[in-house]
Please model this.
Amino acid sequence: MKVAIIGTGHVGLITGVALASLGHDVIGMDANPERVALLREGTPPFEEPRLRELLQEGMQAGRLSFTDSIKEAVGGTEVVMICVGRPPIGLGDRSLVAVESAVRDIARHAPRGVVVVVKSTVPPGTTARIEQVIRLERPDLEFSIVSSPEFLREGHAIEDTLEPDRIVAGSDSVRGIDTIRRLYAPLLDAGRRLIETDPRSAELSKLASNAFLAMKISYANALAQVAEKAGADVTEVTQIMGADARIGSSFLGAGLGYGGYCLPKDIVTLERVAERLGYDFGLLREATKINDEALESVARKVEEAVWNLEGKRVAVFGLAFKAGTDDIRGAPALGLVRRLLQEGAEVVAWDPMAGELAKAEIPELKLADDPMAAASGAHCVVICTEWPEIRGLDLDELRSQMAYPVVVDGRNVLDGGKASAAGITYHSVGRPGAPAAAAP
Ligand code: UGA
Model:
């Protein structure tokens, strides 16, 4: 099928390369000509496993191309996928301006019979609005519209797209649903699940899923506070909870809290959507508050561990909002770094992927090539991202590098017993503290 993808951000580009790998003819459109130039060279604008390979394969096979012209992308296509970004719903609400402006352009150039698929995460009712805009712009145009939200995780985006738990097709049009079925036919033939529903339920399902994941993390973080006071270990507690299939063990990791471009934004969006509809979804507000407190609590542990931050050197392990990506949008690590710098600390960070991006945001931040170099002369190490490299660190060497042997583990990745055995004063989240062997 001929598919035009509008917006080559995380969702758009991944969907485009994935559909090309399934044999479709895909054209990716982006308003940013620099991004288009990069993509035409076969260079992905962000890191994601297998992205480069599939991008280049698709282009070499002649099934994948890029343009900055909506007219070129949309003219003659069978399917248009709207994948433009959206900031959180605000009060004066300009958050859907990019979506509306893309839709007007699409309507102007779309051919008869086109199927418009909304992939951007949007509040319920947006697909209906988009349909209205197209009808007003082109009363003569025959078209169908589907809401098909994307559930891909950064760092696993290709895998999540080609091996999804579910594909959602929300439409009142049989042709719309049939188009999704044809687009993803190889995945459905391989046993992947298609859930057919109405557009509003599809739209709400995406916000509901992300908000629920965020809530689960905040539950674990609130529990961590209780565990610390009760002398329990939150990782033991969540392991026992997770063994119950009704609860499940994923997304119960206590720590610095959730970050990224999606969870923080979508939980706030769902709360505001509910508010506008006349429902006070206080549960979500509380989850956001707990998330803010999770960062605050780790910051306090660093302060308590080193006393005055002024003139102290703090090593930060991990800057990306999670392991496996260079994405620093909404990264809790950056919030913590800013806070430490404000208090007068010198901050030296190590991250295998996100260092330069973080430094561009926070120029005072110093970067080190490896964890030991960052820890050298540090009064405290604070672990902010669960990079697998950290688990394998030689703790004796780490201790010998540091001015004060204090580690605040904001992701609960180290073994507290081993850290203490190496002479490190170890603080984590919701786990019993190590004996204060070497407090300053
Ligand atoms: C999230 C969802 O997981 C995807 O399903 C969704 O498609 C995507 O948003 C989106 O809307 O585009 P992503 O932003 O890639 O994916 O990140 P997650 O893997 O969900 O992690 C979010 C944050 O939660 C990270 O900062 C991570 O460190 C944190 N986290 C995760 C915890 O603090 N504890 C956990 O147990 C799990």
Residues 199-230 form the longest helix (32 residues).
